[in-house]
Design brief:
Helix 2 packs across helix 3 and helix 5 packs antiparallel against helix 7. The chain is built from twelve helices and seven strands. By secondary structure, it is an alpha+beta fold.
């Protein structure tokens, strides 16, 4: 067995762009043969992945799978919108979403899960990088379950079945008619996609967010010069408006434009023959919170030619 020196690892890293530990593993597997180690990295997709890992990946797809009382969402990012229309990439996202449905919501656990071909999901992602030629990454995943009721979903800007730019899951608990319940859940999921609620109900509003909002509203009210007792009433009135903007059950249902979501549920309960409770909801927007780099095309060409 050849001795694997730090200098050899450094040289391979510079040649391949792969990570230090991957380079060491490659040299170990190839008994220190530099050319063979480069080929080993290429076969594993690690060389291509490392070179592309620094690129911004804010495109891609949100994938969704719903089966009865279980639903899962995943976001798999790529560098360009073109990849979202790649059939190979779509099949990969669909499979990752199915694995999330079976293995749970934790993204780290999902990456370590068996992809079904002898690789983990994370290893399969690296292979996608080599196959497609872009930086690709599993960014996040989530899952909703109910023991008595349905989980319904909606994909906005759908590119392929169960895949698009925005994915929403809504979990409803009820003993009512399952088919009707699923349609109600789908309508609520459409509402969530459009209205972007942050909280399920007033009791679930984050205390720190509420404190910040109350402080801002109080300062605005004091600026009017009104006495403190009037200021307090103004704050409470404006808080109700705040709830209507960020709380799902307090929002106006987008489908009819006039009924509160809570009132819509009361009416829907009569139709399905049983009370309906929203057990939870999840909303993924592709690239949400990812910093997108603005590229100067002329500058990029100049860098390449130099």
């Amino acid at each position: 067995m050849a001795e694997i020196t730090a200098a050899a690892v450094k040289e391979l890293r510079e040649k391949s762009g792969a990570g230090m530990m991957d380079c060491k593993a490659a040299l170990t597997e190839t008994d220190g043969d530099m050319d063979a180690a480069v080929d080993w990295l290429r076969k594993k997709g690690l060389s291509a992945a490392a070179k592309k890992a620094g690129r911004a990946a804010a495109e891609g797809l949100v994938g969704m799978v719903v089966e009865g009382g279980v639903g899962a969402l995943v976001e798999v990012n790529a560098e360009t919108d073109f990849v979202a229309r790649n059939e190979t990439f779509q099949k990969f996202v669909a499979k990752v979403a199915q694995i999330a449905l079976e293995n749970g919501a934790d993204a780290d656990a999902l990456k370590a899960a068996d992809f079904g071909d002898g690789n983990t999901v994370e290893e399969a992602t690296v292979n996608q990088v080599a196959t497609i030629g872009e930086n690709i990454g599993l960014r996040r995943s989530t899952r909703l379950t109910v023991s008595n009721g349905t989980v319904s979903g909606y994909i906005h800007n759908q590119i392929a079945p169960g895949m698009g730019k925005i994915g929403v899951l809504v979990a409803l608990e009820s003993d009512g008619d399952a088919a009707k319940l699923d349609e109600i859940g789908r309508q609520l999921a459409m509402h969530v996609a459009a209205a972007q609620p942050q909280f399920l109900d007033i009791s679930s509003v984050d205390a720190s967010a509420l404190d910040r909002e109350r402080e801002v509203l109080a300062e605005q009210a004091r600026a009017s010069g009104k006495p403190d007792e009037i200021v307090q009433k103004m704050v409470e009135g404006r808080l109700r408006k705040y709830y209507e903007e960020v709380v799902l059950t307090e929002q106006v249902f987008v489908i009819d434009g006039e009924t509160k979501v809570s009132k819509f549920l009361e009416a829907a309960a009569k139709d399905v023959g049983s009370p309906i409770k929203i057990a939870g909801f999840e909303r993924f927007t592709l690239g949400e919170g990812v910093e997108r780099r603005e590229e100067d095309f002329a500058d990029e060409v100049a860098k390449l030619t130099n």
